[in-house]
Amino acid sequence: MRKPRRLAPDELAPYEWHPPRRFSRWGVGELRGKGQGARGEADPPGSDLPLAPCPSPLDWAALFGNAHPVEVEVGMGKGLFLVTQAAARPGANFFGIEVVRKYQLYAATRVAVRQLPNVKTTCADAKALFRDFIAPGSVAAVHVLFPDPWWKARHKKRRVFTPEFAADIARSLPVGGELHVASDVAEYFGVMTGILRAMPAFRELTAETTAEGGYETNFERKARAQGTPVGRARYARTAEAVTVAPDPAAG
Ligand SMILES: C[S@@+](CC[C@H](N)C(=O)[O-])C[C@H]1O[C@@H](n2cnc3c(N)ncnc32)[C@H](O)[C@@H]1O
């Protein structure tokens, strides 16, 4: 990975949000194997501590210093989508969640170099954050772009996009709020769209798979360069109750 310019912690601080100290970035452990994080890294110190109770969900207006709508990116990697969107749309706030610290730092550095006041990044497990820190109806849009496919059958349970996670995303959106998913793995794209189509809480706006086009993220750039088709779909939150779709992994 190309090293980004190294910034001092106080230069990065305005662009980072840290979960409370006793909160493990791996959440309460459902992603973990024995003593290891989801990506085979050693557990961070203190990760066996119980999840701290969160009496007050994230206060976006306090965090960003304004009441602009908030969009959340799950697994922003090196942050290309985050910085491009934030620079193009200063009237929206962007919150990027990335579970691997070196990528979160990379993205935060990109944001800091551009001094984008409408971006915060955090190193955390997105599933745990949605479950415990993101208030119902508090987010205008969620982007899940090129999530890790975890190719091996026995690793698929580590995928971020599950029926429960889709339900937590639905709860975070007001009616009319949008969810945007993309993947260059046809099977995983089918799983995501299958889950979302089974949820009355979502209405499909667009869904297409294209072999040609530009790119919005680093992984999309790689897929385009290899000629791999990319699936992309957008959903709007309906007024229907949130339900948990059948688990495609179970069938
Ligand atoms: C395949 S990469 C895609 C990165 C970026 N979205 C892109 O398209 O270039 C998936 C990213 O999601 C992150 N990730 C995986 N599981 C996560 C989780 N539970 N919470 C937050 N980030 C996660 C990974 O560390 C990785 O950086």
How would you characterize this protein structure?
The protein is built from eight helices and seven strands; from the N terminus they run ααβαβαβαβαβαβαβ. It is globular and about 45 Å long. It has a seven-stranded mixed sheet, sandwiched between helices. The chain has 251 residues and is of the alpha/beta class. The site of S-adenosylmethionine has 21 residues, from strand 2, helix 5 and helix 8. S-adenosylmethionine (SAM) binds at residues 74-77, 97-100, 103, 125-127, 145-148, 160, 217-220.
Notable traits:
globular, 251 residues, 8 helices, 7 strands, alpha/beta, 7-stranded mixed β-sheet
SSE arrangement:
Layout: H1 9-12, H2 60-64, E1 70-74, H3 80-88, E2 93-98, H4 101-114, E3 119-123, H5 126-132, E4 141-145, H6 163-172, E5 178-183, H7 186-197, E6 202-210, H8 218-226, E7 230-237
Parallel strand pairs: 1-2, 1-4, 2-3, 4-5
Antiparallel strand pairs: 5-7, 6-7
Bound molecules: S-adenosylmethionine (SAM).
S-adenosylmethionine (SAM) binds at residues 74-77, 97-100, 103, 125-127, 145-148, 160, 217-220.
Compute the average pLDDT. Answer: 87
Biggest sheet, strands in spatial order?
A: 3-2-1-4-5-7-6
Poorly predicted runs are 28-55
Overall geometry comes to globular
The secondary-structure class comes to: alpha/beta
User: What distance separates the N and C termini?
Assistant: 38 Å
Number of helices: 8
The count of strands amounts to 7
Write the element-wise H/E pattern from the N-terminal end onward: HHEHEHEHEHEHEHE
Q: Any ligands, ions or cofactors bound here, and which? A: S-adenosylmethionine
Q: Give the percentage of residues in beta strands.
A: 15-25%
C-alpha Rg (nearest Å): 17 Å
Give the biggest sheet: 7 strands, mixed
Portion in helices: 25-40%
